[in-house]
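Issue: copy button drops trailing tokens. Both records pasted manually instead:
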Amino acid sequence: MPALPRTRPRRFRIRYALLALAAAILFGTVGFYLIEGFSLTDSLYVTVQTLTTVGYGDVPPRSSLGRVFAVVVMLLGAGGVALAVSTIVQSVVQSELVATFGQRRRSKRMSKLHDHYIICGSGRVGSHLVRDLSRANESFVVIEQDQQRATEFSQRGLNVLVSDATLEETLREARVDHARGLAACLPNDADNVYVVLTARDLNPGLRIVARAAEEQAEAKLLRAGADHVVAPTIIGGHRMAVALTKPAVGEFMDSITANELGLAFEQVEVAAESSFVGKELRATTIRSELDVVIVSIRRQSGEALFNPAGDAQIRSGDILIAIGREGSLMKLNQLARGVS
């Protein structure tokens, strides 16, 4: 990204230069009006002639005092004009150079992205996703059309593309063909459908999660190729119903979401070299030492074991859905990957 934090000072320099030029014109116009008795139009005309060094033709200063004032306007005003012109030219050239080098830096940074996530849209839903992925130290890029939001993300050191996520070239620039997952968080369901269709075509193995503003858009997004659809209004309604009718359950869910209990959910894939492979769940140290609860085991075949019993055998490729404290979940992940 360009050096966005410098944009405002450069804008101020241009503003001050233009103000200095306007002050010089006003100074000369009022002076010639009072000293020479010209009309305001003629006074402005003579002032501009003086400042632009065009020279006097039809309306020159006549009195000695008027000529002395003209000299003052020349000396002071010429400096103001030179300052305004040089500042504007410098700012334009600097902007072009910064944009060019910024584009090169961004392209170089994007070319290194691999196994990352793409967030299309950083509104109310996307901004929370950006926050959570940042906390998890995940590699991701945000595609956002709003310049102000993009500036904020850029200043935080995040990868940002200021572009339209529905365009194929934008997704290609975000290296969708090398990405692990994509979140379509645009406010318009039709745009999200288009993003999903394009992303699925560019990367058939991509994990795609889409936001649905309207309930009827869920089926369309799934048909377009989304793996999972989230409808914030529906989820919000369910959460409100739980909080209203089952307050204890609602408070527990809220405490986990807000991390008040220090607990979190995690999914862990069991590698072939893990010491867990071939063991029954009760024979591992998952519960006794790590104090982690395995909520579900998902087999490669698609079978899901909810609240698995102690005699459930762990197999290579299983995905363990666990709840526990962050440090314990990290240790579980290491053991599942075979890292001692």
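Record 2 (pasted manually too):
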Amino acid sequence: MAKIFISHASADQKLADAFARLLEGGINLSQKHIFCTSLEDQGIPAGEDFKSFIQKKLEESEIVVALITENYYASAFCMCELGATWIRAKNFIPFIVPPLGFADLKGVLAGMQVLRINDSGALDQARDRILPLAEDAAGTPRWTKRRDEFLKGLPSLLKSLPKPKIIKPEDFKKLKSEKEEYKREFDKSDEENQTLRKKIDELKKAKDKVQVAAIVRKYSSEWKTFKELVEGAKEQLSRFDRVVIEAFFQWFRGGDFRPTSDDWGEEPMEAVEEGFLDLDEDQGTFSINENNPKIQKALSALRELQTFVQEGGASEKFSKQYEEKFEENFDMRLRPFWERHLIS
């Protein structure tokens, strides 16, 4: 997963490339930890939706570095990236690039602390903030050497960058429409971000796993919660043979498991030998061995699901939606529920 997102105009590819190489060589930051659309093997994979992929990488990144140039201000998409970063309160490092000066800053950048890309001290500040992300950080002498090489080549590099083109009225209208669409998306993200902060505040006050799980469910849709609980329980059950899963099913039904040799052969006794089942020789019944660590993990996941299904975790509305969708009762004690959701 990329840790650094380099936001730049496509016309500034050479500058973005040089800056990424400075991070790689001067800090010893791995290529896989840098996302930059213009860099080979570090951009957007073929077949991916551009907007969705960019938004995903913005959300995943720990630090966003913006290269603010004339081309950057001329790019509607860069402005949207900037807005997304601002909304999500990212660790943000903006660099202003000549010939732009502080007086040229506008929008969310106006009044913000911005670094000059042609200032060695500013580059050092950025390095100090990025350094903790490197798994095996390079020392100061190596950084100083690479930084000075970058600064030495910067003037000629900036001269080679293309100037922003004048936008045609029809293109401007299209971009304005796209910008409004992005704004709606980011307004929605802002609302989600506020909800997430409330969730985080409550999680900090949680005392145990039960409270944490309850808070997570509170801020999730019921279908999402149900899906996550089912997937967790199914993953645990997948570690066992069918006879053990059947014993789990009977355990949650509150009944005895009396497997016949015609149906199950030697499977029940093999499960006893593996430590997954217990045998009551007097009654001729089998039950899950609750002292087995793997059994305990599966029980924990199944009980969480049971709490949602059987003990008031799900709303009456959700139960009704479930029964309309699957045309069966929303009841974990019934075999159709297990066959549909829990048995691979």
